[in-house]
Amino acid sequence: MASKTHLPTGILLACLLAASPAILHPQGRNIEFHGFLLGNFTARTTGLIPEGGDESDYLLAEERLRLDISAWSGSANASARIKSDLRHDALSDEFDVDIREAYIDYTTGPLDLRFGRHIVTWGVGDLLFINDVFPKDWESFFTGRPLEYLKSGIDGLRSRYSANPLGIEVLVIPFFDPDRLPAADRFFLYDPMASIDAREETTPEAEFGNTELALRLFRSVLSFDVSFHAYRGFWRTPSARPDDYQNPTQLTLFYSELAVYGLSAQGNGLGGVVSLEGGYYDSREDRAGDDPLVPNSQVRFLAGYQRQFGDDLNTGIQYYMEVMADHEAYRGSLPAGFPEQEKKRDTLTLRIERTFRYHTWKVGGFAFYSPADRDYLVQPRVTHQFSDELSLAVGGNIFGGKRGTTFLGQFDRNDNAYLSARFDF
Amino acid sequence: MKRAIVSALALVMAVSPALRAQEASPAKPGLSAAQIVERSLHAFYSPGDDMKARVTMNLIDKDGRARTRVMTMLRRDTDEKGNQKYFIYFHEPGDVRQMTFMVWKYADKEDDRWIFVPAVDLVRRIAADDKRSSFVGSDFTYEDVSGRDVTADRHTLAGEEAVNGRPCYVIQSVPVEGVDYTKKISLIDKENYLPLKESYYDVQGELFRQFTADEVKAVPVGQDGSKGAIPTVTRRTMSNVKRGHRTEVIFDSIVYNLGLQDPDFSERNMRRPPRAWIE
Questions:
Q1: Residue A251 is part of a domain; what is its CATH number?
Q2: Nearest one of B33, B31, B27 to B167, comparing CA atoms
Q3: DSSP assigned state of B96
Q4: Cβ contact B70:B249 at 8 Å
């Protein structure tokens, strides 16, 4: 995730930037420089504060300076790009550098190669992910950071061969990055083993055998954009292994092996755009489904429909379901006292957005509701564009659910409102 | 904001089927109003086999505050039946920079439209419906950008009039189905069929929207104009008279017949536009 570093590095980068008018004002050179300043401030609106963390009403308070530098070669079909945020966390008063992307591109014939840290998005879901198995930052998402921060980069090689009748994309990812989940120091969470403080995280070692591989084959079928996806790697959310099942004193967090095979399709239909996606999650370390520590295998699918109405009203609905492969085995092995998951977990989503006044105002929101878990998340948002440079967004995250143990229900006490301001240059 | 642009773009180049007339030829006596409009649509929206231009849109509100959109637009006419392909790359403003947008426009069915969102490296389809909604927040509608089906209005020839010394047909167009205007008066250049002025009247019968072609240039085709020249509106304004908002558009670096092929309008080029296109 964010590459953490200390103040000196930040200062060094800032000095480099300030001392580089040639970069700021390239003339006749194959280089472009852009960026923005972004402030994100998110406060919990429930008036409750989790113990032991920052002891703050704020879930997020930060300033980010985005530096986006592209350079390219006039003679070879090559380019380079770095997108990096200098970030100040106002809650902890720490500086760090978040390398969003840093890559080199090379193109030859129908082949495009990308080497380095870069963001990959697969599948056709709108904020629902099946074949997009790449790292995500859910903490960002639940605190109202701009949407691009939901995705974080992978460190690896992408090669894409574009041709008829079939395009091929292959990703080789030697270095594993997990999802970033909301942490207990700033969020109220459900943690079945909350009493155990001693925790150790082990991520897959950077060994050849742990290299993640992802394949996408794509083509057009009957005017639909269709992709076949395959992935071999790891779950990006950790499992926890206690040192002693009877009297645990320490937990080891680990990422178990996973393979995913799926299909996605998107095209015009019913006067709008229709999206379909499915995938089989093969939990390679728990094929029998009876290991309580490792997620069960799953089948996931979604169907979505988006349409525009009237002048500027955009809508989208989706239905998503995941089905546990061995629910009986899972139940049989579930330790006493742990909440039981249903065999089927479904989610409905709704997106409604409307623009006003020459698109300078946008009012809308996104909502998740799970009939199986009976929990929800509603995300209203208003954005105003003061000028081409300055925009302001105000929004919220409203969580709720029948139980405090479900995915969204556990965040019930974290309802929050945010303000985000951005100045582009 | 990104999604605002996404939604705005959702409609770009909305359908205008079966408009492809023959190359404009000198007016014949007895040319019907619909034939004049057809020639005008062709002269304005699909001259040449293909085209590339840098388009600058200045969106100016009633207090004089301006916002600017800069894009590179490419167009290819796939055939003579009205099937076209469009590609748009955004240079400015910053929040949509490097975003690309592609339309495969069909004469006889719904268009295919895609958007590439560079921040998350995502190409996806976008839904589109209303042809009369604003193009990227400007005073131009999607139909203003890509043309309105000739049969969508009933046209009558209301006379002749000169605009800046150029003789024009005066065409009155009344929409067949209800839209934002109830009547449009167009002044169409008798020689090159370009629309020089359009006035839109609302349901109260009042002028609310006006288009003017502010600059027309003969853009050379081929090496140093070896293949002639195409008269092109290089500056245009759409004003919302009632709201006091207007959009001024400049087309520059226009190239016709650069030899674009259908496969150039691909997902690959959305993700990684050729340098020669966007410089």
A1: 2.40.160.10
A2: B27
A3: G
A4: no
**What is the arithmetic mean of pLDDT over A62-67?**
98
**Domain assignment of residue A325, given as a range:** 7-424
B266 in reach of chain A (CB within 8 A): yes
Q: Give A-chain residues touching B272 at CB under 8 angstroms.
A: 105, 107, 112
Q: Please state the pTM of the whole predicted model.
A: 0.89
Q: Does residue A1 belong to any structural domain of this protein?
A: no
B134 touching A, CB under 8 A? yes
Burial class (CB in 10 A: 0-12, 13-18, 19+), A210: middle
Domains and CATH numbers, chain B: 2-24+36-267 (2.50.20.10)
Residues 6+ apart with CB under 8 A from A18: none
Contacts of A385 in chain B (CB under 8 A): 1, 4, 67
Look at residue A217 and tell me if it is in a domain: yes
ipTM confidence? 0.90
Query: Is the pLDDT assigned to residue B148 strictly greater than 50?
Result: yes
- The predicted-structure confidence for A5-15, as pLDDT tens digits, reads as follows 455 555 555 55
The total number of structural domains that make up chain A: 1
pLDDT reported for residue B4: 45
**Residue A167: its chain B contacts at CB < 8 A?**
267-268
Distance separating alpha carbons of residues A346 and A25, to the nearest angstrom: 52
Which residues of chain B have a CB within 8 Å of the CB of A311?
130, 132-134
Q: Which of B5, B121, B263 comes nearest A119 by C-beta? A: B121
B15 touches A at CB < 8 Å: no
Name the residue in chain B with its Cα closest to that of A355: B4
Q: Which two tokens stand for residue A258?
A: 């996973």
Residue in chain B nearest A34 by alpha carbon? B94
Q: Is residue A34 one of the residues assigned to a domain?
A: yes
Give the A window 332-371 contacts with B, CB below 8 Å: 353, 355, 358-360, 362
Would you say residue A2 lies in a domain?
no
Give the residue from A76, A320, A46, A63 showing the smallest Cα distance to A188. Answer: A46
Helix (H/G/I), strand (E/B), else coil: B152:
helix
Residue ranges of E strands in A45-110: 58-72, 78-89, 94-108
In whole angstroms, give the CA distance from residue B216 to residue A171: 50
| Per-residue pLDDT tens over the stretch A254-302 | 999 999 999 999 999 998 999 999 999 999 999 988 888 899 999 999 9
Q: Classify B129 as helix, strand or coil.
A: coil
CB pairs under 8 A between A and B: 123
Tokens of A75: 């003679």
> Of the candidates A72, A267, A311, which has its C-beta nearest B133's C-beta?
A311
Task: For A424, list phi and psi in degrees, rounded to 5.
Answer: -90, 145
Question: Exposure pattern of B243-259 as b/e (b: 16+ CB <10 Å)?
Answer: eebbbbbbbeebbbebe
Q: Is the separation of the CB atoms in B51 and B259 below 8 Å?
A: no
With beta carbons under 8 A apart, name residues in chain A contacting B133: 308, 311-312
Asked if the model's pLDDT at residue B5 lies above 80, the reply is: no
A70: nearest CA in chain B? B98
Chain A contact for B257 (CB, 8 A cutoff): no
Q: Across the interface, do A424 and B94 touch by the CB < 8 Å criterion? A: yes
